[in-house]
Amino acid sequence: MSARDWIDKDFYRELGVSSSATDADIKKAYRKLARELHPDANPGNTEAETRFKAVSEAYGVIGDPEKRKQYDEARRLFGGGLRGFGSGGAGGGFDVSDIFGGANAQGAGGSFSGLGDILGGLFGRRGQGSTAGRPRRGADVDTEIRIDFLEAIRGATVPLRLSSPSTCGTCGGNGARPGTHPRTCPTCNGAGLITRSQGAFAFSEPCRDCRGTGRIVDDPCPECGGDGVSTKSRTLTVRIPPGVEDDQKIRLAEQGEPGQNGGHAGDLYVRVHVTPHAVFGRSGNDVTITVPVTFQELALGTTLTVPTLDGKVSLRVAPGTANGRVFRVRGKGVVKRDGVAGDLLVTVQVAVPNKLSDEAKAAMEEYAKATSDQDPRPELTAMLKQRSE
């Protein structure tokens, strides 16, 4: 894709967001569209597959803060496109796209060098020269999985089915039909750029015959259409380390999109979502649990049997223990890979019965009479007394 083609695209409109959208809004919009348009959700729907690729391409630019900054600056300079800057101007055939190559621009006074740097990150060039044949790293890929609470605590091995661009298995990534090979572009001699003189200046632009790749594929691969990349479904085994937290990302090196011209593949980032447990909760490396108790257990004292992640413990509750007190059981929390273990935090909470038997009600009334001289809220009572005087 040439610089002109890229700048002319409105990636914000592709994702349905405004140019002032936050990074979080862009990510949210991308995830929504990716789920709706994913090939697995639309088997055989070529229109959805095309939109899926376009959305992924848009997110690859404006979803990256640095690339988004460069993209916004380039669109600001050219008013959102390059189509108004044709070659028929008064400059005798001058084309604004010439400045993308940057060849000899600094030697001519540097008036275009800044722009070359701005666009370099988007179009694979910085300053002078061509990167047509240089290895380029593939893009990173994001995906999500959901595991249960105990899997997150203990670790797990989870199969992950992923549909993403990958090196074409038919042509091996060179884009040519098996048995044939790409040939060096005769127009640019494999450089990917065409350089021409314009008076005292020398300008370069991507070669239009090879689209800046330096190669021409005469007989394209039937699977990838000459791109060298095809969307495939693959199954990976993801090792979830013990103690992983909700919304944490796990990086799988070089499992993202394939690189170009022999470059390394990008990375795969797996965002982990943890399903809450019915009994246990979590606070950092500590596991939490709330144990219902009766009033008399706290008032008279008792011994509670409390479940842990891998067994049970006995907990001594002293007479007169306050409702809501938290007991700490050392070493019964999350054990991380470095061997450091959190604690089990046990909160005792009085369970108030919805209905009392006649015998229990009579006993409670007798208890109320016996403790009528005890005020559980003396501060509030004193304040109310002052306000009534």
From TrEMBL:
Gene source species: Kibdelosporangium aridum
PANTHER family according to UniProt: CHAPERONE PROTEIN DNAJ 1, DNAJ HOMOLOG 1, MITOCHONDRIAL-RELATED
Binding positions (Zn(2+) 1): C168, C171, C221, C224
Record-stated family: Belongs to the DnaJ family.
GO CC term, one of those recorded: cytoplasm
Region: Disordered, residue numbers: 366-389
Limits of the CR-type domain: 155-233
Positions of Zn(2+) 2 binding: C185, C188, C207, C210
Designated gene of the protein: dnaJ
Domain J: 10-75
Cofactor(s), names only, from the UniProt record: Zn(2+)
Stated name of the protein: Chaperone protein DnaJ
Subcellular localization(s) per the UniProt record: Cytoplasm
CXXCXGXG motif repeats mapped onto the chain: 168-175, 185-192, 207-214, 221-228
